[in-house]
Amino acid sequence: MGTTHYFANVISADSHVMEPYDIWWKALGHKFGDRTPRLLDSYQGKQGAFFYSGNRGAPVTVVRELLPTSDAAAKAAEDKGLGAGGYVPEVRIRFQEEAGIRAEVLNPTRMLAILRNPDAEVVQACAAVFNDWETEFVSYNPQRLIGVSVIPMHDVDWAIQELERTGPQGLVGPMINCQAPEGCPPYRDACYDRFWAAAQAADAPVTLHILTGRTLAPLALVDSQTPEERGANPRGMLDLFNEIETVLANDFIFGGILDRFPRLRVVCSEFELSWIPNFMWNIDRLQDPYGFGPRMHLRELQMRASDYMKTRVYHGLIDDAYGPYMIPLIGADRVLWGSDFPHIRSIGLEAQEHVHKLLGALPHAVQEQVVGGNAAQVFNLGS
Description:
alpha/beta; TIM Barrel; eight-stranded parallel beta sheet; three-stranded antiparallel beta sheet
């Protein structure tokens, strides 16, 4: 029995490639040696498969096999002969056809960890290697495979050059560090304004994706933790998902970025929706002239603080059970469904059924916006 197509225009605004582990060693090993991200066959006296990314706090992680529980979507695809869809474009197209997906915006996987490496020279070189690999991958079918560039923000001049290099190659917009890298000024600093101006001029949406900021994911540490240390992992996961609030409030809203660049589009990926109404209420309290605002000497905004979340920022939804109830509060034109495939807890071949069940209580026109219409607009994909 084939997939029931409830929607004709499903576009995942947040999917992933699984870039091969060896692309950085092949391109950069001769230059950077042991500083280069690469596979290791032993680590700290243990034999096995490990990946050195240089990720601050967890530079080496175990290469794991797929589990039918947490990796159910990827395992189901693998069992159908589609396991190479993360790195072979023709296989990814076959996956999309079977899943009833028109197109996917393809964010990185291994590069997410590399982006947290404190060695800025290596990170920039690795990002350029990924961007070239992604360019070749999506060139197989640019209508269905939508590529993004990865642009670390340690050096604004380099970031602008990479944005200008990769845009004409077909990468639709930059994924930057969720927060400015450690040791760098916060994004509200005027030193970044030339980058925001360049992204605005290129009509390139800027993606802030989970795992690329300053908060370390407990999953990267769990293999080396003691039972006592694992006891703090729930807090660590909550901190990870809450990191987006810091950068939106401090930098893009009260830091004035969205006021200074009125056509800049920001996409928040993989943070879901349930937190947003409470966040909007809190930032309005900060702005309230009879509340916290005057005592903290916050800058005057051009609109109500919560309105930036409703008009200037796009929000990713994967499987948030409360997400559909949030959409009327946030605005149906602000929400982008994404599968996160092929990552943990992602949505795979069951995409059509999943979005039908998730959004089925909403008006059909709203469903159509969320499952694909908004993504087509944000990423300039046409009709």
